[in-house]
Amino acid sequence: MSAHADTHAHDDDHGHHHKETFVTKYIFSMDHKMIAKQYLVTGTIMGVIGVLMSMMFRMQIAWPEEPNVLFEALLGKWAPDGVMDADIYLALVTIHGTIMVFFVLTAGLSGTFSNLLIPLQIGARDMASGFLNMVSYWLFFLSSVIMIISLFVEAGPAAAGWTIYPPLSALPMAQGGSGMGMTLWLVSMAIFIASSLLGSLNYVVTVLNLRTKGMSMTRLPLTIWAFFVTAIIGIVSFPVLLSAALLLIMDRSFGTSFFLSDIFIQGEVLHYQGGSPVLFEHLFWFLGHPEVYIVILPAMGLVSEIMASNSRKPIFGYRAMIVSILAIAFLSTIVWGHHMFISGMNPFLGSVFTFTTLLIAIPSAVKAFNWITTLWKGNLQMNPAMLFSIGFVSTFITGGLTGIILGDSALDINVHDTYFVVAHFHLVMGISALYGMFAGIYHWFPKMYGRMLNKNLGYIHFWLTAVCAYGVFFPMHFIGMAGLPRRYYTNSNFPLFDDLANVNVIITIFALVGGVVQIVYLYNFFSSIFFGKKATQNPWKATTLEWTTPVEHIHGNWPGEIPHVYRWAYDYSKPGYDVDFVPQNVPFKEGEVALHH
Amino acid sequence: MTTLLTIIVLVFILIAIWQMVKIFDLAQAKTENSQVATDKDNTLNGYLMMGFLAFIYIITIVCVVKWGDLPLLSNAASEHGATIDNLMIISLVLIFFVQTITQFLLHYFAFKYKGEKGKQAFFFADNNKLEMIWTIIPVIVLAGLIIYGLNTWISITSIDESEDPLVVELYAQQFNWKARYSGADNTLGKANVRLIDIDRANILGLDEADPNAQDDIITTELHLPVGQPVLFKMRSQDVLHSAYMPHFRAQMNCVPGMITQFGFTPTKTTAEMRQTAEIQEKVARINDIRVENSKPLVAKGEEPLERYEFDYLLICNKICGKSHYNMQMKIVVETQEEYDAWIAEQKEFKNSLIN
């Protein structure tokens, strides 16, 4: 073991003795378990804001320009007499997207579970650098605060869509939200990226260096593989978004022309010359596309783990799962152009990106079939985490299949930027990743808080959410195919779309119910922290190392020596054993065949 | 009012949930409650999985039956549009097929293998043959789709200049469209937003010295002769816009600082399109809705909504600011004679300038 790990072991001997203050334990904590909880709670709060926003703009779409007491109460001057303003509508759409993609599904999901599970599942006392880990969280917190502050600026928050394409995002005269609101958005995202990079570097180093004895890479649980590869994608692609953001800041504040050229607006010609908005699109989507895998891969990892454990069966095709994660990660960096088929780039590039994009369907299909086969002839324990995992596979398939249409440049021409796209990506990376996150929370809550979540509330939460998710996003494909563009404040200027208005009402009702149902989860989560049933050490009878640690959190995770690992993570229902699971730290019996490793 | 009702309904749903939880908890009061799924939970949720499968199928059928009669899927008004529609229908059939089967397997397995105490799961970790099967089948299917898709894409995007297309500029600005016809020489004059001179009514920034610009014609409606290939050159003066012409299966972004292009051949005049069964049905449906929506307006003493008549539209489909939702231009496809008569009435650039 490295010298580094030894220091940790040394810390541990004394860890119980020296008193931690409230501040070092709960606020500026360097303990990965506490940081994971901090990520989760911050992500949850951001999630509530993001979902509330979506409920508001869904009401506007269903009942356009109707006075609404909620708008009056929540939007203030942006809803004179309760009628939502068109600018704030775009702002709500923009900030909803930003918050959900980055703050909830990147930081809230990957931040929580990478921090919680990497050290616990690989058998390490903590992250490679506890200090950087703490800095990473606090940068994330700071960026969240700045994003929230941006909601309150005079001219309104950023409203150019979460993709912030210039020139709309670059010119305050083009849109109110492109003034101070956009500045704060960019600052917030720059800090967010710094936080994400620190986190990712830490995850990669920890996985590579701090695995316990016997924990070879091919014995790692799939969760760790997913977090590890996700971190690598983040390191490769987030800096490109950072550079795009910095160049945009230069264009906005220092008069450069990276993305702007030949602009005449509000009666005057601007000085910008020679830049190209298409360049921004390339830079943005070079992160933006891998970003959807940064969101979905951790969810895939969590789901693989939970499915195996609750099926009481090994995950089917462990090696194929790893290979497909790697294939998806590689392909994810060479498909960004499928967001830009009609951006004006060379049509030949469109052909190349169609080809690479449709290739991603292959590893995705392998994963989906492997999950389904994992269920086959299992002994399925229908815990809430398992339901969300099955729900994940369901929405991942439904949403993923329509990717075949959008990835095909010829078909994209007519559905690009319609509600078809909104339906597709919400199912495949929004709802699916959210399900993965919920599955993870239900499964590892006992590890985080030492108590159990109420399962009946969990069942109600899942079933109502599942029905609402399909109710919202399935019909949405059809209004998209009918040509309805996204990001329209109201469709009432187009009689052509009048017959879609009732579909929008149905979608909104499902969305509102789906949003309100999350209160069940929030209640369950916060009340169980204090009043939940006390957890046992290994409530789900799982094989991985985190369940060998004591229920009460201690610094350094294991009171004595770190357990050694003798087998892979999926010896469930192995023939020759009386129990239906064999933890990774149990040595082989005499004559036992390593069916796998 | 609707909102208030919605809120009340939501509150009732919450109360209902609360009551359901209480019932669940009371029902389990006697049994040992570890918050881990019991056989009873497994059975209940197993059946719910089958119920959910039925729900997915039902919502699919309802959507296809109620909203699947998409004029936008089967009634293209351009030459290449029919190819796109074919490819779209093939892709959709394939998707629905795979969706139906995989969702069945997923939910049926979840039901069939629901856990019971004492049951042993089957230790099945690996099977290379199976992995090969579900790698190779998608490879073959996707190869077919890719080849078909790329062929379509290439034929749409490669513009055949030898066909002598009508060259038209689509000019986007917050929040309206202009069209510029190239005139008798079929060559657009040079233009740049730096040359815009509002006082002289040079609103698109044409180069007044360029001889090609003299006969250019700027209009606020887009008229196209049927059967004539058109090559659109897109420009934007301020932010990104997207020229979306859904009935022609055509879309291209308008980018400040560069000229983008898209070409197609309209195949149905506006009058012909209005006569197609799909459009007549859609228009009738829309007018029923508009009559219904007019009732409260009339009761308040306001004007009822106008009757809807079908027209092709050019609409903006890239977020461009506050009035993005109302950036449209009417497109009229007509016979060559009608078009010639219309264009003859329009003012040429050199005559539209204010000196």
* Annotated CATH architecture of chain A: Up-down Bundle
Beta strands of chain B, count: 10
Q: Which ranges of chain A are low-confidence, i.e. pLDDT below 50, for 5 or more consecutive residues? A: 1-17
CATH level 3 topology of chain A: Cytochrome C Oxidase, Chain A
What helical percentage do the residues of chain B reach?
A: 40-55%
- At the first level of CATH, the class of the domain at 161-272 and 307-352 in chain B is Mainly Beta
Mean pLDDT over the full residue set of chain A:
92
Q: Any idea of the CATH topology of the domain at 161-272 and 307-352 in chain B?
A: Immunoglobulin-like
Number of domains of chain A: 1
Rg over alpha carbons of chain B = 29 Å
Sheet with most strands: strand arrangement of chain A: 1-2
Overall, the morphology of chain B is: elongated
The SSE string of chain A, one letter per element, is HHHHHHHHEEHHHHHHHHH
> Which CATH class of chain A is shown?
Mainly Alpha
Q: How many angstroms does the end-to-end distance of chain A come to?
A: 22 Å
Derived structural class of chain A: mainly alpha
Q: Mind summarizing the main beta sheet of chain A?
A: 2 strands, antiparallel
Question: Helix count of chain A, per DSSP?
Answer: 17
Largest interface: A-B, 148 and 134 residues
Q: Largest beta sheet of chain B: what is the strand line-up?
A: 3-2-1-5-8
